Structures are given as C-alpha cells and as structure tokens.
Amino acid sequence: MYTDVFHGINIASVCLTLFLCVLLAGIIGLQRGATGHPAGFRTHILVCVGAATAMMTNIYLLQTLGTGDPARLGAQVVTGVGFLGVGTILITGRHKIQGLTTAAGLWASACLGLALGAGFYSGAIAATVVIYLSLRVLPYIEKYFYARSREMDVYVEATSIDTYQRIKHHLNDELKAPKLSTHIGQSAPMVAGAISFQISATLPKGMTKQEFLDMLENMDDVILAEEQQ
To answer: Using CA atoms, how far apart are residues 101 and 105, in angstroms rounded to an integer?
Structure first.
C-alpha cells in the first residue's frame, strides 16, 4: 500500500524523513534566528537531522540483525542534546539568565527528529505547530500577565554596603513591601568599585513596577536598578 512505502527503512521513507527534518526544524530555527538568538536555522536543522539519522540507524540495525533495543540510540540523543543546550545558556553580568528557551528549542528539535526517524510523521508535524506557536505567540501572553504581576526581581548596583542597608531599611520599615528578600551578588558588578545585589519583592498595592524602579534609581548612591526577566 501507499502508506507502507513511508514506513520502515527504505529510500522513500529516508527521503521523506530528511525532508521533513529540514522543513519542520527549519521553521523553528528561522523563528529563533530571526529574533537574534544564537542557535538558529542551521543549528536546529542539524540537530533534527542528526536525531532522525540516529533513530533510523537504530531501526535499520533492528530490522537487519533482528535484535536490539529500538529506543537505545534515541535515549542517548536526548541526553546528548541536553549537554548541547547547556552551551546556549548564559548568565550575564547583570545576573540575567539567557538562552533557556533556545536550549529547550534544540531539545525539542531533537525530539522531532526522533519522531520522524521512527516514522511518527503526524506527531512530529503536530508538535512543530505547537512548538512554533509557543515561540511566536506565547511571548505576548507572557508579557501581558508579567506586566500586571506584583512580583518583581530587581538587580541593583550601589556605591557601598551602607546604601544596601539603607535600601533594605526603606523597603522593610517605610514602604512595607510584602514578601521582601534581598541578597548581595557574588559576581563582580558592571561598575567598578560598586556592589551588586538582588531584590525580590511583592509590590505594595497601588505601586507599579516602573514606580518601584524609579524609586530605587532616585535614591542616593544608587547607580543602576533594572528588572530581571
């Protein structure tokens, strides 16, 4: 039958699998590359093609030798791509963590490759739609709710430890910000001679995030106050 041609390991199924790898992973990679992230079009395609090749090789060995575990190479791919994704995660000088979504995209592309290599084309196509919508549409929803949240993390640089103590006193005793926690950063601040620290707080009712940032920036000896996303 027609559908049987594209299942199992044969020239038709291999060509279809690799074509779908380029198409589906390319869609995800283009979205990441177009928004300025480090792992883009080619990286996602290579990860997907590599994962699909590993899965097809596994199935080929199983069909040829008649023994083996069809999921063994696939499991190794998932683990290996996890290490690759770690390389895209960065902690910037202002203690922001970047690259988590890109790492997740690479891992998802590998899973697409495994699904395609196993001949689960419908599942891979459906997953691609969900992944793309997650990357393209969900950031707007995320920003909408985050902008209205009273929970806030702020990175601050100040001239001295006395300024840090003064800010803590102001937030605790005068502003009475609920659920307040602060800690001094371990890495070097952006401004030489300054100290850096983080503030996590639930803002008082009626205070916006911008008003909270403005209040910190207008305090004496505060060099920088920036929300952490």
So the answer is: 6
User: The whole model's pTM is what?
Assistant: 0.71
Same domain for 135 and 156:
no
In this structure, what token pair is assigned to residue 157? Answer: 């640089």
User: Which of these three, 112, 144, 176, is where a domain ends?
Assistant: 144
Q: Mind listing the pLDDT tens digit for each residue in 21-50?
A: 999 999 998 888 887 777 788 889 999 999
Q: What share of the chain is helix, strand, coil (3-state, %, to 5)?
A: 60, 15, 30
Assess whether 207 and 97 both reside in one domain: no
Rounded Cα–Cα distance for residues 191 and 18 (Å): 50
Name the domain count of the chain.
2
Using CA atoms, how far apart are residues 206 and 208, in angstroms rounded to an integer?
A: 7
What is the per-residue DSSP string for 81-123?
Answer: HHHHHHTT-EE-TTS-EE-HHHHHHHHHHHHHHHHHHTT-HHH
